[in-house]
Amino acid sequence: MIIDDEADYLALMNEFSAHSGMQAVTLRQWDVEHLPLLDDIDILFLDIHMPYKDGIDVIYELGTVGFKGGIVLMSGAESRIREAVVKLALSLNLRYLGSLSKPFRLAQFKRLVDGYQKKINFERLDSPFKNEETYSLDQLKLMLKERSVYPVYQPQVDSLTEQVTGIECLTRMEHRTLGMMPPPIFIANLGKSGLIDDFTLLLVAQALIDCGPLLEANRNISISFNIVSDSLSKHFIEQLIVILEQSSVLLDQIILEITETYAISLSPEALYCVAKCRAKGISLSLDDFGTGYATVKQLYDLPFNEIKIDRSFIVDITNDVSNAIVQATINIGQQLKYRLVAEGVETELQKKLVDAMGPVVIQGYYYSRPLKIKELMTFLNEKSFTGSYVL
Q1: Percentage of residues in the chain with pLDDT exceeding 70?
Q2: What CATH number should be reported for the domain whose range is 2-126?
Q3: How far apart are CA 226 and CA 210, in angstroms?
Q4: Tell me: the pLDDT tens digits for 168-226?
């Protein structure tokens, strides 16, 4: 559905929809009598400034009826107005897909549509996994051995040298009957089973076996692991350090990622853990930076030495506000001599805008999706990267 009071844009969007294999319903104004049409609408493209009922009125009504489709804002309105409308949509639990700033092109339209279709297909795929599953420690060990659960590695590339300087270890699970299980559901089930600590230790050990030869031969490459907040206990960190020290990987090649939301309120035991890690030479990364409302003083006080700029700011980096936040984060990080990682970089434009702000490590689909270990080795051998890697 396209709602816009400008006939030219309705005609253009109708053409774009046909080109993308979609059937369009076009409206020059919104009225309550159109509500029944929403049952068959997957994506709603909405102008903000319209007579009678504007886009803000429409958003509010969509929230009251629980519209389940995606919403794309079309407007030439200033970015702060769009931001306010987006916040309204999110507060109403509506699915915001992005904005198209008038005038826009077919490629921009298709990017939003294709991204939404992929997400919907993924959600349909994961629907069998809504029920909670529990595991035993022996089952986890067997799943790792059989590779139904396995680590994957997403490269991190220096924006100036085009060299891989790090890899983040993530996890994937292939369900025995239903196929690929979304990581958030698998991790949540592990938490409910009380096995997240054990699994993290097993995953780290497996990753060090996989990547040990690579990291031993290329001491300039680091490997990052996500640590959930509940794992920051004295017992867990002691076990983790034993595993790390028994590997061929140097401790200063290890980075532990902790989300900002939790890091700004560390308990005394958690502070013990992060201090212990830093004293051992292990780096600490403040993950999802910008989403936890840390003050500059807290940032200075915490013993972190890497900032990961949250992907939500990168996705919307053409927006003046997001752009300013990314630039400010990079400025602060440079002053504090932090390693800076921009997550979720997918397009040439996003990379170009980040590059212009200063030396940053790029992580995202622009360079590579998360890879299995053999795929990672192939990736590192590609001629598109400068430098050589001993494998």
Answers
A1: 87
A2: 3.40.50.2300
A3: 17
A4: 999 998 866 667 777 877 888 888 888 999 999 999 999 999 999 999 999 999 999 99
Cβ-based neighbours of 46, under 8 Å, separated by 6 or more? 3, 4, 55, 58, 59, 71, 72, 73, 74
The residue type found at 31 is D
Which residues make Cβ contacts (< 8 Å) with residue 45, sequence separation at least 6? 1, 2, 3, 4, 13, 72, 74, 100
Tokens of 95: 């699915």
CATH 3.40.50.2300 in the chain is located at 2-126
Q: How far is residue 105 CA from its own chain's centroid?
A: 26
Distance CA 275, CA 376 (A): 32
Contact indicator for 79, 320 with CB cutoff of 8 Å: yes
Q: List b or e across 124-137, with b for residues whose CB sees 16 or more CB atoms inside 10 angstroms.
A: eebeebeeebebee
CATH number 1.10.1750.10 is the correct assignment for the domain at 133-380: no
CATH 3.20.20.450 residue ranges of the chain are 133-380
Q: At what angle do helices 7-19 and 106-126 cross, to 10 degrees?
A: 60
Spatial contact of 95 and 72, defined as CB atoms under 8 Å apart: no
Report the C-alpha gap between 350 and 367 in whole angstroms. Answer: 12
